[in-house]
Amino acid sequence: MLSIQTVGSEILQNTPRKFYVFAGSEYGIKEKYINILQTYYGEKIESPSVISVLDNMATKHFVPLTPAVYVVRYDDNFVAALDAVLARRIETAKIIGTLVCIVEQNKHAQKIDKHLPNNIVTIDEVHSQFLTKYLHQDFPKLPDRFITVAAETASNYSHARHICYCMSQVSVNELFELSDASLKKLFGVVDTVTENDMKIAVAARNFARVLDVIEHSGAEIEKLHYTILATMIEIDKLIESKYAESILRNYVKRWSHQDTYNMFMNTYAELQKIRSISVDMESSLVYLAALLQFSTIPAKEDLQ
Amino acid sequence: MNLMCQKQALEQLQRIADADNHSVLIEGIKGCGKTYLAAQFAKMKHIEDYTVVDSTVNSIKDMIERSYSLTNNMIMCVENLDIGVAAAAFTLLKYLEEPKSNVYIVVTCRNINNVPDTILSRSVSVTVAPPIDSDIITYAMTKDMTRLQILKGLPLWKVVRSFQDVDMLFLLTPEKVDYLTGLNRMKLSNHVSDIIWQMGHYLDNSETDLDFVVRYIMLSTNSKYMKQCCIECLTELSYNRIASHATLAKLAFELKYGGY
After folding, report:
1. A233-263 burial: b if 16+ Cβ within 10 Å, else e
2. A103-123 confidence digits (pLDDT tens)
3. What fold does the segment set B4-127 form as a domain?
4. Quick one: which of A14, A75, A156, B128 could link to B28 by a disulfide (CB 3.0–4.6 Å)?
5. Interfacial A residues in 174-193 facing B (CB < 8 Å)
6. pTM
């Protein structure tokens, strides 16, 4: 079986073989290679079966055939009929251009590998680094942030391309108004917020961002009160230790000792309420987020 | 051992054993000897198969499954049911509704108000009084007289209120005893995370007994405000509603800033 690197370099260097079988689940990369071959040959011809292409090549034509990439998709009859004889016929066929046969099921790939080991390549999940690189090539005008969102959201290259295509149809200014979590949710990812998202939103005293995190927290919502408590402890440390490193370092100037103390006590009081009486978790968090808006966070006693 | 606090409870348990009740509930503060009394109940019933399980759903389920495979008499002690999740109590309740004739269940709890009524109605309750000073000394004397003389001379000894405290102190190395003793000189100018760490961990990073530490700080301070904060912290720790590290953090904030 050929490696994806070998096939990739052959196609990119314009020295493709006469016959390839693309197996595996990553449809997007298969299509990418076919497009490169089409650019190289200038023509792409979709054919119903491998045998029909071989027959066509064996027939004498009044006007000689021009090189093209012939694409055959999911030809089960070819896989069923493949034996030593057919494999020999393919090896000796004079294909004008390149014939690409696409198969998906692994059991087919195993059989083809037995007879045509120098023609088959399995293309499965692509490493995220390559995925980002390919997306940059395909959508050069899309900013890095949205390429990363697509790569993190998509299950494969093809899916990521669709997401990038959708985003490329909207103005960049409009896209920048949406948070990463909102974009991911738009493309089907439900729980994307992390503990750090909440910590940063609270430390930044950014009401909108806190609400955004609460909205996208899903099952993690139960931990958010504890996250606020942990944020206050961390900020208290950062206020006093000027050299301690933290993701919250940039926001420390917005906090005083009194603020951290009051915010901690207010959050703890909310946690006590939640544990003893029936209080809506989300309303409690929104209330705490609203407290972040005050220039000096009010004390628990002042709020009662 | 002749312990005053357990005298009445032992008499009650003897009556329960004679009456052949299958479900017993023992209530008392932390470290008053509830599990010890459960073991005494097993001796009164002359049952050797005695098992102690935590109040978690899985432990209780395992215990029930095991009981179905046995035919001999056995006593199962479920410790501190009020501290476990509600689901654990309901798992036990299902079993109490259709108990096996060869199985005796002893449930212990610190706060009877947190035990479901449905379990209370199916059990005979026994209340254990908190140990008095002479009980604690009697218990400690059975361990190591020399060590007891040393510990009695330390300020930490004033905090000992239960048999569990005695067990804990006797197990501590001299370094750990020194560390605990020094907590009353803790610097409150440090940042809160440091104060939390100091109260919650020994120098070798093993965890302290939070309840004991907070009681020691409470006894060591003259400040009314700090004493009040410690009492609130102890109450919250006993309720077990909020994670203990968060409760400890609250106390650390209060100790440091003294209330704005």
Report:
1. bbbbbbbeeeeeeeebeebbeebebebbbbb
2. 877 777 888 888 888 888 888
3. Rossmann fold (3.40.50)
4. B128
5. none
6. 0.62
